[in-house]
Specification:
The chain is mainly α and 337 residues long. It contains 16 helices and 2 strands. Among the domains are: 90 residues; 96 residues. The longest helix has 49 residues. The chain is rod-shaped, with a radius of gyration of 43 Å.
Length: 337
């Protein structure tokens, strides 16, 4: 029964009881209590209806209280559900949401949403109106298109903001050059991406002009020298400086040497690795590798003779085989660290 119907029915019932009681007995009755100071005289029908009237009022107050409480709970749940949609929208954009959720069960869902990674499915689906624009943005970025920063409105370190910048870099070599010019002001991931784009589209002579403000990683140096092995645009001094700025292993340097060996003159390559080993004794192994490759055994013998007993064991073993006339091994078959 509705609230209004309940009130009307209850009042009708009270009126009927009052009329029926008054019709049976129209006398009055006095309630008197000396200690409490009560002295009330009412018609008999009033005394009969009064308890029911009190119960009626109490019932109305009870219904109002719990009705209001239920309304507030439903309103809170509705607001929290709306906030969940906003949290879902933020998570699609890789943003952590701090929106307060009052409903405990929905708060648990919000906490889960804030720690999981969400992706827009490739298949066609109808997104909620709230996240429709977000889904459109994500699909645009995944298609490799660029969205102006003012329209995207995301922090620079956000993954979608980074994706957007990468899209622009892919489309504009000049912008890629700007990223490298201000390399220390951008994330390493973005700098490496811009570097790769320029490395693919520009000659070494152009790229090296943009590297003054860039801290090159091992991977970037390897890629740079791999391309230079085809173009031979860098001087030995420049190559040495790039190698000195990073931490390489002998195995990595030997890989670089193999690339240069295909195009660089032996004298230049040997001079380069002689300078590398002179700058850092740790890289003597890579220099010895080249000496054995170019059959410069006397020079290798001199270095090995002046080394410690437990140094360069592989090369000493190869030299012994050479002296015994049994040197028919490929040096690449040996592990050189």
């Amino acid at each position: 029964m509705g609230f209004k119907k309940y009130i009307i029915a209850s009042l009708v019932f009270l009126v009927v009881i009052a009329l029926f009681s008054n019709n049976i007995n129209s006398d009055t009755y006095t309630l008197k209590h000396d200690l409490l100071g009560i002295n009330i005289t009412l018609e008999v029908y009033a005394w009969i209806v009064l308890p029911a009237l009190v119960l009626f009022v109490a019932t109305i107050l009870h219904m109002i209280f719990y009705g209001t409480k239920g309304y507030l709970q439903r309103t809170a749940i509705k607001k929290d559900i709306s906030k969940l949609s906003m949290i879902l929208n933020d998570r699609l954009l890789d943003k952590k949401s701090n929106l307060p959720i009052k409903t405990q069960s929905l708060k648990d869902i919000a906490d889960i949403l804030n720690v999981i990674e969400l992706k827009v499915p490739k298949r066609t689906f109808e997104p909620l109106p709230l996240i429709e624009n977000t889904v459109k943005i994500i699909r645009t970025l995944n298609d490799g298109k660029y969205i102006p920063t003012k329209e995207l409105k995301l922090p620079e370190d956000n993954i979608w903001a980074l994706k957007n910048t990468k899209n622009r870099v892919s489309m504009d070599d000049n912008f890629a050059a700007e990223i490298l010019k201000n390399g220390n002001n951008h994330p390493v991931e973005l700098v490496e991406f811009a570097f790769d784009i320029l490395l693919e589209n520009k000659p070494i002579s152009t790229i090296k002009k943009f590297l003054d403000n860039v801290t090159l990683t091992n991977s970037m140096v390897e890629k740079l020298l791999l391309k230079d092995a085809d173009q031979l645009s860098l001087t030995n001094h420049e190559i040495l400086n790039y190698l000195k700025a990073n931490t390489f292993s002998n195995k990595e340097l030997i890989k670089i040497a193999k690339n240069y060996k295909l195009t660089m003159q032996p004298e230049q390559l040997l001079s380069l690795f002689e300078d590398i080993s002179a700058n850092n004794e740790y890289f003597t192994s890579s220099y010895l590798y080249l000496l054995f490759e170019y059959q410069m055994i006397d020079k290798a013998r001199e270095i090995l003779f002046n080394s410690q007993r437990d140094e360069y064991i592989v090369f000493k073993a190869l030299l012994d085989l050479k002296d015994c006339g049994k040197y028919n091994y490929n040096i690449d078959n040996f592990i050189i660290e």
